[in-house]
TrEMBL record:
It comes from Sulfurospirillum halorespirans DSM 13726. Belongs to the FAD-binding oxidoreductase/transferase type 4 family. Residues 535-566 form the 4Fe-4S ferredoxin-type domain. Residues 40-268 form the FAD-binding PCMH-type domain. Its EC number is 1.1.2.4. GO terms for molecular function: D-lactate dehydrogenase (cytochrome) activity; D-lactate dehydrogenase (NAD+) activity; FAD binding; iron-sulfur cluster binding; metal ion binding. InterPro entries: 4Fe4S_Fe-S-bd, 4Fe4S_Fe_S_CS, Cys_rich_dom, FAD-bd_oxidored_4_C, FAD-bd_PCMH, FAD-bd_PCMH-like_sf, FAD-bd_PCMH_sub1, FAD-bd_PCMH_sub2. This is D-lactate dehydrogenase (cytochrome).
Length: 941
């Protein structure tokens, strides 16, 4: 994008202190980074990644002097359009995330980019957690959680950001700062911002002198409310500094930037029980909620209401209780959870709850369970409701989730009326669920925005909803999702003129030029919620169901380097829009920009599919794109390689050994420089040499046991047959020899498939888009393994997790192949005597391991074998991605940028289950990663 005028001036100023690689003005990044989870879209002119508070402060000074609007973005999981702009988007870096916990673990201090789930992971050993618990907690950043006053199923109004706030560091519109925990900072702020402080104090006095307004504020914040500003700060506090800090909660980036925040922590009880209570109708369920709220408030942690339409939307999904299909047409569920500091108290809680509800006749008997498996299944019902609507919606439509709260005594009538509104406006797929203890309901429906008649339908529906919630029932139009652009036109309707005037004054006090997130919360346009809708064109079956929530982003290995899965999907949708418009020139230019960020640096690890609410695998889309880009000549070459694979592997082993021999003479630094030069000259087609590059290896038959009753077929992957270990040790056994020795020690006779040399699972081909060639190799291997195992009579062990996963996907005969972790855990531990070693170790679960659900078994094996095990919390996919780490080492480096600092300094041993990953992990950690079998060997006594 070509900049001009003030935006060019802005760019020229910030380029003096922010590296060019963190400033984006091109079409790809402004569109991809400019998207949030809402159904609105604005495209920023400039996107800036900020790494620290000094950069934010300087940027705000510049935007203030140039009178340019600026919007702050954390994770972009907000649903109401509060994190988008057509001006300057300031994104917080994913690495701006230090955490400090005080000695008693009573408070936790966090920088803006800390994920809510990471904060809880740090607090878990202390038996504590943060109060707010939004559904997006694994992807939402703490600054966004606080700025939206996001809550969730358990925190209610007692433990949200507002109620648990201890201190805050704020950067204001002019770049000035305030630390509410520092007397010196407060003194200086009052000195230099005397007028602001005085005006805040005046507002407090004004409300105190207006009993009607005071009482309205108190009443409206008895239930969840994020519609408008948090006027309760002006009622609950007298000190203007306290008021300022609490006004920042829920202000959605319109009053300032949250540089750091300190929360008081709350208990995280381990003893839990849940009951899926099925009542005959909504009235009975809501009557039960009133009982739980008024008579069991100390015994209940959560009560989630789910209407019959919601239950029907998930009843046919895998793992759902069969009784869901038998429920009556009006049945309504309450999912109730109780938590306690010990099991005895938990039993007491359960007894009280059941006794207090005994007068309401349920459709099914009420039953609490402490069984983790059983109650996890119940909670999967609740968590599956939103994605269930998203997964079945018509392509090209948008999923909308609205968020309201009613006084609890009106919940039943209001819910029934909502259902009537769905019928009136033809939203037949709509479902209702929510945090019933707080009167907080979410309703989900699908909407098309391409047709003006559809927009009129949506407008009329939302007007009726607003009148029903705000006027009839005096509820909250936004309970926990924030006002944003979505509800800004209705803030005055809900609050009345006196309170709305107060809110406009607050905005003017903090942001006199109106430059911080303009149009959000305060918006004079009554049609603002009907503008700038996202286009959701039909693009590809792999991604059309994407709701752009952003839950995928934290696990993506390229999230700090180029694009995330959500951003790849947004980019592909935009290319569809260009194509549909017939703009070939713009399409080709955008496609060229996308190649490196979207295609080359996608690890295709598919971890995104594990956290995606609708199961979208963006890696599969990338593989499809790569397949389309392959030329006939490349296919011919791949076919030749597949047909001569054994010979080529032999050559590869020889070359690796030769390179290792050269490295014995030439120092690492010189080798790296030479390799970098050759790689650059080849246009990045030749791989980059690394210090962790293994030498060559030739698979050897080292068997000693024959004629045993117990047999196992051992398939050594082509990479393990060709490569030795990264950073090899002189007397170290090669992997195949070591595995054969362990298997024989466990009493197995080892069988190899015939004609082993050319056998391959097909992954080296399929991952690059060569599907036919990959399938060819897979079929050859399947036939060989069927023969060797006598059609599955004997178990089959593969020594690399990614190959095992590929075989599971490609094999047609149903032949079972065991992963190293699975085989060790299920078949070897009972046959071997394990003696725990005292050496500290670090382990890494590769993506295939995670996708096969073997992470817990891996950790269990590791802890059986070693007394000190580290599992780096900030590492997901290593980013090596087969051989991609040789051609794009920056992907591996970015994905593992926190690895080294996450490993205790006394750790010398490291283990995984995939050769390419072990190379990348070794390179970035400085340790020598080995197969899990090497750990097992050390622990066998």
């Amino acid at each position: 994008m070509l900049l001009s005028g003030k935006y060019l001036d802005f760019y020229n100023e910030i380029i003096t202190f922010i590296p060019e690689k963190r400033i984006f003005t091109d079409p790809l990044h402004t569109i991809a980074y400019g998207t949030d989870a809402s159904f609105y879209r604005l495209v920023p002119k400039v996107v800036v990644w900020a790494n620290n508070a000094d950069e934010v402060s300087q940027i705000l000074k510049i935007t203030s002097s140039l009178s340019l609007p600026v919007v702050f973005r954390a994770a972009g999981t907000s649903l109401s359009g509060q994190a988008i702009t057509d001006s300057i988007l300031l994104m917080t870096s994913r690495d701006w995330k230090k955490i400090n916990i005080n000695k008693e673990a009573s408070t936790i201090t966090m920088q803006p980019s800390v994920l809510g789930s990471d904060a809880n992971a740090y607090l878990l050993p202390y038996g504590k957690k943060i109060g707010p618990d939004p559904a997006s907690i694994t992807s939402a950043m703490i600054a966004g959680i606080a700025a939206n006053n996001a809550s969730g199923m358990c925190c209610g109004t007692a433990d949200n950001s507002y109620k648990t706030l201890e201190a805050m560091k704020i950067i204001f519109h002019d770049g000035s700062e305030l630390d509410t925990a520092s007397p010196q900072s407060i003194k200086e702020f009052k000195q230099y911002h005397h007028a602001l402080v005085e005006r805040i104090s005046a507002l407090h006095a004004e409300i105190k002198a207006n009993p009607a307004l005071h009482d309205k504020i108190v009443r409206k914040f008895k239930i969840k409310n994020t519609c408008g500003y948090g006027l309760n700060a002006l009622v609950d506090y007298e000190d203007p500094i306290d008021i300022i800090a609490h006004l920042m909660i829920g202000s959605e980036g319109t009053l300032g930037f949250i540089k750091e925040i300190t929360f008081r922590t709350v208990p995280e009880y381990k003893d839990k029980a849940s009951a899926l209570m099925i009542f005959k109708n909504i009235k009975d369920a809501c009557d039960a909620v009133i009982v739980l709220k008024t008579q069991c408030k100390d015994n209940v942690a959560a009560a989630e209401l789910m209407d019959r339409a919601g239950l029907a939307s998930v009843e046919s999904k895998e793992g759902m209780p069969s009784f869901l299909k038998t429920l009556s047409p009006t049945a309504t569920a309450l999912l109730v959870e109780s938590r306690a500091e010990n099991d005895a108290q938990l039993d007491t809680n359960i007894a009280i709850i059941l006794e207090k509800l005994s007068h309401i006749e349920p459709e099914m008997p009420l039953h609490f369970t402490k069984d983790v498996y059983e109650y996890t299944k119940y909670w999967k019902i609740r968590k599956g409701l939103f994605p269930a609507v998203g997964a079945v919606r018509e392509s090209g439509t948008t999923v909308i989730i609205e968020d309201v709260a009613y006084p609890i005594e009106s919940l039943a009538d209001a819910t029934l009326e909502l259902q009537e509104l769905f019928k009136k406006y033809g939203y037949n797929e709509a479902i209702i669920f929510g945090h019933a203890l707080d009167g907080n309901l979410h309703f989900v429906f699908t909407q098309a925005f391409e047709d003006p008649k559809e927009i009129q339908r949506y407008e009329a529906f939302m007007q009726d909803v607003a009148e029903q919630v705000a006027t009839k029932y005096h509820g909250s139009l936004k309970a926990e999702h924030g006002t944003g652009r979505n509800m800004a036109p209705f803030v005055e309707l809900e609050w009345g003129n006196d309170a709305y005037t107060l809110m406009k004054e607050i905005k003017n006090i903090f942001d006199p030029k109106g430059l911080l997130n303009p149009g959000v919360i305060i918006n004079s346009d009554p049609k603002a919620h009907l503008k700038n809708f996202k286009s959701m064109p039909v693009t590809d079956e792999y991604i059309d169901k994407c709701i752009e929530c952003g839950f995928c982003e934290p696990v993506c290995p390229s999230n700090f380097l180029t694009l995330t899965p959500r951003q790849r999907i947004v980019s592909n949708r935009y290319m569809s829009t260009l194509k549909n418009a017939g703009d070939e020139e713009a399409f080709e230019a955008f496609q060229a920009l996308y190649q490196y960020d979207g295609v080359e640096t996608c690890a295709t690890c598919s971890l995104c599919s594990l956290v995606c609410p609708v199961g979208i695998d963006t890696g599969a889309l990338t593989k499809k794109i790569r397949a389309h880009q392959i030329t006939p000549t490349q296919h011919k070459l791949a076919g030749m390689i597949a047909n001569n694979y054994g010979t080529i592997l032999g050559v590869g082993s020889f070359v690796l050994s030769a390179v290792k021999g050269v490295n014995a003479v030439i120092p690492d630094g010189v080798m790296k420089a030479m390799s970098a030069g050759v790689t650059a000259l080849s246009g990045n087609k030749l791989p980059l040499w690394t210090t962790s590059l293994p030498g060559g290896h030739t698979f050897k038959d080292s068997r000693k046991l024959f004629g045993m009753a117990e047999k196992v077929v051992y398939f050594s992957s082509c990479l393990n047959r060709t490569m030795g270990n990264p950073k090899p040790k002189g007397e170290e056994k090669e992997l195949d020899e070591l595995i054969i020795g362990i298997l024989e020690k466990a009493g197995y006779e080892v069988i190899f498939p015939e004609q082993l040399k050319p056998l391959c699972c097909g992954m080296p081909f399929s991952s690059k888009g060569y599907k036919a060639e990959g399938k060819q190799k897979s079929m050859e291997l399947e036939a060989a393994l069927n023969k060797a195992s006598e059609n599955g009579k004997y178990p089959i062990l593969c020594d690399m997790s990614s190959c095992t996963k590929t075989m599971m996907e490609y094999f047609d005969s149903g032949l079972k192949v065991h992963d190293p972790i699975e085989f060790i855990h299920d078949s070897l531990l009972d046959r071997l005597t394990i003696k725990q070693i005292n050496d500290p170790i670090v382990i890494h679960s590769i993506c295939s391991t995670r996708k096969m659900g073997l992470t817990e078994k891996f950790e269990k094996i590791a802890r059986l074998c070693s007394s000190k095990v580290t599992v780096p919390a900030d590492v997901t996919c290593c980013g090596f991605a087969g051989d991609r780490g040789f051609n794009y080492p920056e992907l591996n480096k970015s994905a593992l940028r926190h690895l080294k600092s996450s490993i205790p300094s006394d750790t010398k041993l490291a283990f995984s289950t995939g050769k390419p990953c072990e190379i990348g992990l070794s390179e970035e950690s400085g340790l020598e990663y080995r197969s899990l079998f090497y750990l097992l060997e050390r622990a066998i006594s």
